[in-house]
Amino acid sequence: MARVQLSELSAFAAVADSLSFTKAAAYLGCSLPTISQTIKSLEERLDVRLFNRTTRSVALTEAGERLLAEIQPILERVDQAIESINAFRDKPMGTLRLTVSRVFAVRGLGPLIRSFLAEYPDIHIELAVDDTNSDIVRNRFDAGIRSGHRVERDMKVIRVFDECSFVAVAAPGYLAAHPAPAVPEDLQAHNCIRHRVPADDTLQPWIFEQGGERTEIAVDGSLIVNDFDLALNAALDGIGVAYLVEPMIEPHLAEGRLMRLLPGWSYATPGLFLYHPSRRQPPMPLQVFLDFVKRWRSGVTLDAMTRAADYGAHGLVAATSHRTSIHVEPNRR
Q: Can you list the alpha helix ranges (DSSP code H) found in the chain?
């Protein structure tokens, strides 16, 4: 039997991790026919089928599962060995793959990334915007940034932004035709712009706290979105009441485009955290990024998100997304 090449095993591991030839090809930076031929050649050389393929799915065979379990530690050690030579370079280099929540990518990520790349020009960043809480290990990301309550428990975390609060807001034009609510329960009589959470496809609850009192309101309305910027735009257009984090709405409050409702009532979120797998030695690009974020955070506040009066002023992606969706229901009013 001809000797199996490391590149073939790397291709096999990429397909096995994603269970997708297309995703594996994109990750490895090669064409789909190339990776398909690589796996086919590996199976022929080993004289065993590693994947069961259909036009709709890819699954490991029992032999494939055994091979993956055996080679994963070896491939990880190879990666660590290659990574270890970073210590002999004058400047850290390599690729850092990050996944971030959309609201942070739009409003707070820009200054952080620009400052990091200026300090470490030999490190490349691959950035993916994702609100679905995908598995960063399975999808081969080095780290992610998301709200603290959505970070897996087995991850190491460092804080990026302090907690901020959700509040109810509406445009002056909407409030001219609808009396402002005096208590959270009054929102049940309003047209509320609801948000469907991409991570679990549930509707976000509207929770309010004041002092030691806490209440969750079952709101209704004619518009459901799965993106906070769509909710913000709808509120600015006078469609109804939106439930948004303060950094998103403060510029609009200051200029009178939105009005805060229910003074004193809000709901604090745990803030944003950078998280990564709990492994003994992070890759050099990730290690320097972790150290940089700690230094950067010491001189940064939530103002980095607040000062986004112009969409995208502090982001690396546009404020509207091809992944967003709108569901409009008949308006009962």
A: 6-18, 21-28, 32-46, 62-84, 102-107, 109-119, 172-177, 228-236, 246-254, 284-297, 303-306
